[in-house]
Design goal:
The protein has 290 residues and is an alpha/beta fold. It is built from five helices and eleven strands. The structure holds copper (II) ion.
C-alpha cells in the first residue's frame, strides 16, 4: 500500500511533463500579427537580421529618391508649366553617374552578402553532427556522435494535441541539441526534395535525394524552435513540421543516453526532454535524500 504522501508525490511526478508542456520555456514560432522576423537564436540568424536591416535602409532610400524624382518631373515638366520640352537626348556625365552609383550600391550590398554566405556555409570546428533526412512526409534524425541512434519525427495530429502544444508545429519526437554547441547538420532526402527550415536558427537547406547538403547552427539560448518543410513535396507537405529543442549540456546528455536506449529497438514510443527529466526525478530525489 502507498502512503498518501507517496501517492501525492507520484501524482506530482506524473503531472510534471504536462506542466513543462503547458509552459514552454521559450518557444520560437510565428505569432498572430507578428511583424518582422522571429528573434535570432543563432549567430547566423543574427547576421541575417542585420543584413536584412541594412538592405531595408538602402531599399527605402532608393524608393524615396525615385519617388521624389518622379514627383519633381511630373510637377516641374508638366505641359502647362513647360510648353516647349527640351530636345536633349544625351548627357555623358549623368549617364556615367547613373551607371556608377548603382554599381557602387551593389558592391556595398555584395560585401556583407558574400560574408554571410560563407559564414553560414560550413562550421569548421563542429562539436557534433546531426543527420537530417526528409521523407514523404516526416523527418528522421540521426545522432552519429552519440551512439548512432536515430528516430522519426512526426507531426502531432490535431486530435492528439495536449494543452500548450501548437497545432501543425508540434512533433512527437523533438530534435534535441545542447545550448552553445556548434552542430553540423547534414541533410538529405529519400524520395523527393524537401527543405529543412527553422527560421529562428537561420537554417534553410534542401533535402535532396542522392546528395548530402551541409549547414550548421549554434543555439545560444534554451528554447523550442519550430520550423517546417518549405519545399513543396507532396500532399502532406504542410504536415511535416520541425521542433528543435535546445537544452543545457547535462540535460542533453541524459536525453541522448535515454534516446540511445529507447531507439535501439524500433517502434518504441516518442521521447521528450520533459519525460526524461521526469524519469530522472526519482533518481535525483533519491540522491538528494542520501
Ligand atoms: Cu517535405
Amino acid at each position: 500500500m502507498f502512503s498518501t504522501a507517496s501517492i501525492r508525490s507520484r501524482a506530482a511526478l506524473l503531472l510534471l511533463p504536462l506542466l513543462l508542456l503547458a509552459f514552454p520555456a521559450d518557444a520560437s514560432q510565428p505569432l498572430p500579427w507578428q511583424l518582422g522576423m522571429q528573434p535570432a537564436a543563432t549567430p547566423v540568424k543574427e547576421f541575417i537580421g542585420s543584413f536584412h536591416n541594412m538592405l531595408l535602409v538602402i531599399i527605402t532610400l532608393i524608393t524615396i529618391f525615385v519617388l521624389a524624382l518622379l514627383l519633381y518631373t511630373i510637377v516641374r515638366f508638366r505641359a502647362s508649366a513647360n510648353p516647349t520640352p527640351s530636345k536633349t537626348t544625351h548627357n555623358t556625365m549623368l549617364e556615367i553617374a547613373w551607371t556608377l552609383v548603382p554599381v557602387l550600391i551593389l558592391v556595398v550590398i555584395a560585401v556583407p552578402s558574400f560574408r554571410l554566405i560563407y559564414f553560414a556555409d560550413k562550421a569548421p570546428n563542429a562539436d557534433f553532427t546531426l543527420k537530417v533526412t526528409g521523407h514523404q512526409w516526416y523527418w528522421s534524425y540521426e545522432y552519429p556522435d552519440h551512439g548512432e541512434f536515430q528516430f522519426d519525427s512526426y507531426m502531432v495530429a490535431d486530435a492528439d494535441l495536449k494543452p500548450g502544444q501548437t497545432r501543425l508545429l508540434e512533433v512527437d519526437n523533438r530534435t534535441v541539441v545542447p545550448v552553445g554547441s556548434t552542430v553540423r547538420v547534414v541533410i538529405a532526402g529519400v524520395d523527393v526534395i524537401h527543405s529543412w527550415f527553422v527560421p529562428a536558427l537561420g537554417v534553410q537547406k534542401y533535402a535532396m535525394p542522392g546528395r548530402l547538403n551541409e549547414i550548421w547552427f549554434r543555439v545560444d539560448k534554451p528554447g523550442v524552435y519550430y520550423g517546417q518543410c518549405n519545399q513543396i513535396c507532396g500532399v502532406n507537405h504542410a504536415f511535416m513540421p520541425i521542433a528543435v529543442e535546445a537544452v543545457d549540456q547535462p540535460t542533453f546528455e541524459r536525453w541522448a543516453a535515454e534516446a540511445k536506449r529507447r531507439f535501439a529497438d524500433s517502434g518504441l514510443p516518442p521521447l521528450s526532454v520533459a519525460e526524461v527529466m521526469a524519469l530522472e526525478a526519482p533518481r535525483v530525489a533519491l540522491n538528494q535524500a542520501k
